[in-house]
Amino acid sequence: MRETLNMDESSGNQTPLVWLAIPVLILGLVLTSITNQQLGRHHHQYAGAVYHTLHNAQASALAAGLQGRLAALQQLASNPASEDSDFELQVQALQRAYPDLLVVTLLGAYTPESLTLSPEALAAIQEDSHWQRVLNQALETGQPAATTVTPVRTANQDQRWVTGVFIPGPNDHLLLALIDLPAFFSAAHGLIGDTLKLAVYDSSQHARNPFFYTHAGSQTLDETPTAGAASILTFADRQWLLRSALSPSALPRPPAVLIWLPGLLLSLVAAALIGWLGYQLILQQRAADHQHAGQAQLKAQLRNLRVEKDVLRQALSESEERSRDLVALAGGFIAELDEQGLIGFISAQVDALAGYAPADLVERNFTSLICPDSKLRFEEAMTAARHDKAMTLVDLGLLHAEGMRLPYTLRVKPVIDPLSGCAGFRLSGTPDHSTAVNGNGID
After folding, report:
1. Nearest to residue 411, comparing CAs of 423, 425, 422?
2. Closest CA to 276 of 20, 12, 18
């Protein structure tokens, strides 16, 4: 009972090893979630770095494009052709280089009070009185001055959002250029494709809505790691605010299933492995418990056998001692013979009774101790005992070691073997005191 309780207790102690698979699975899912969050954070950081690099590159390209146009217009204003046809050729070459230059015209000698304008410039100025103030500013400062973004209509009645720049030149000339800003920003944005979403604000007017943007829907770009970067674009005396955002399709984040699926599979494999190992440990522990129980049972059996052996040895010793005492009290001897009559054992009393040492009689035929006239009766007694398988009583004479005849009564009992029949004889001899004995035989 105690061994069974120990086995049950050891199995109960090992059972938590199987349930350990559940915490392992939970831990695997938690690690997968943390990994997913870390990868998402690293992706945002990487996308933010790429975004700011692209924004700075886009801002630099736009600034270079604006400065290139302003420099080309200033060069034209400082060295205009004297003939209208030649000037027209200069303008056409400039427009081929910068297709967003809608109108480039040279105003003649003027003063602020008397000014003649081309029809395109006049139409633009008529749209907004601000243009007159910018023109006067260019005349007063002698520096290029740009207007706000203004909608104007071209000769084919298309509406364009343009900014005008007045550039003073020598001999009281004034160069006026109309730049199609959406065309300029679209061309520059097309160099990087749809990677960035752009929005351009007129910071001089503190406008809340951009006058140019590349994305549909909301015109507002929020402040995020991949949006909201701002740069100032300067053109003449006007400043524009460039803001951008990284397009979601530029650096798409890998689907979460690509992280969760391997994480879930690894967690399940780890949990299954832990559960299997725990189950194997339980089986091993049970086998060890069974082995220990078997060993304890064997030890108990050995102890019992040892006790039984000791008891049997003690009983045998007492039986032998009792037999010796009985034989000694009977005044005779006992012996064991094989089937041929050879002595295998003879008790020590034969020494006192017949003068023979027991060790000298071993392997000696018992008939050598019988008087010649009694040998036939002894053989007949042995034959009768063998045949009847029962004890036979015979009176005969034994020879003393000194040659005297000793009258004895022998009791012969066969030793029965189930296979071979008679395997030998046991006999006892007691002196027959009814007759007197001398050196020559019976008196």
Report:
1. 425
2. 18
The DSSP letter of residue 342 is B
Instruction: Judge contact between 181 and 211, C-beta under 8 A.
Output: yes
Mean predicted confidence (pLDDT) in 58-79: 88
Beta bridge partners of residue 406, listed in sequence order? 398
Residue for token digits 């309780």?
Answer: 5
Residue 211 carries which DSSP code? S
Supply the DSSP symbol for 255.
Answer: P
Q: For residue 64, with 0-12 CB atoms within 10 Å meaning exposed, 13-18 middle and 19 or more buried, which class applies?
A: exposed
Give dist(CA 425, CA 341) in Å, integer. Answer: 8
Q: Which residues of 420-433 are buried (b: 16+ CB within 10 A; e: fewer)?
A: eebebbbbbbebee
User: How confident is the prediction for the chain on average, in pLDDT?
Assistant: 78
Check if the beta carbon of residue 278 is closer than 8 Å to that of residue 13. no
Confidence check: pLDDT of 130 > 70: yes
C-alpha to C-alpha distance for 397 and 354, rounded to whole angstroms: 11
- The domain 331-431 is placed in CATH, from the list 3.20.20.30, 3.40.50.300, 3.30.450.20, 3.30.300.30, at 3.30.450.20
Q: Structural domain boundaries of the chain?
A: 37-246, 331-431
